[in-house]
Amino acid sequence: MAEQTSRPSQSAEAIEAEIVQTRAHLASTIDELAIRAQPREIARRQTESAKARFFESTHTPEGDLRVERVGAIAAVGATVLVVLAILHRRHRRG
Questions:
Q1: pTM higher than 0.85, yes or no?
Q2: Are residues 71 and 45 located together in one domain of the fold?
Q3: What is the C-alpha separation between 15 and 29, in angstroms, rounded?
């Protein structure tokens, strides 16, 4: 058997007011979703997230710099630059 809600019967004005309120809430939710789906907003969130991950990976929870991780990141960056320079030289010669 279907359960019946024990809500007291509402007046037409109360129902209409509830509908208006629900429509307004739905409209603001749709607007918020539309903003979140914009490419510029997506890129901003991804940039913010990447910055936060980088900070978390290079700093301790107390905020101190993790020198070993910064050194490793610098070494990887230098290696990438050297490889790119070698590839660029080979491309120019050949």
A1: no
A2: no
A3: 21
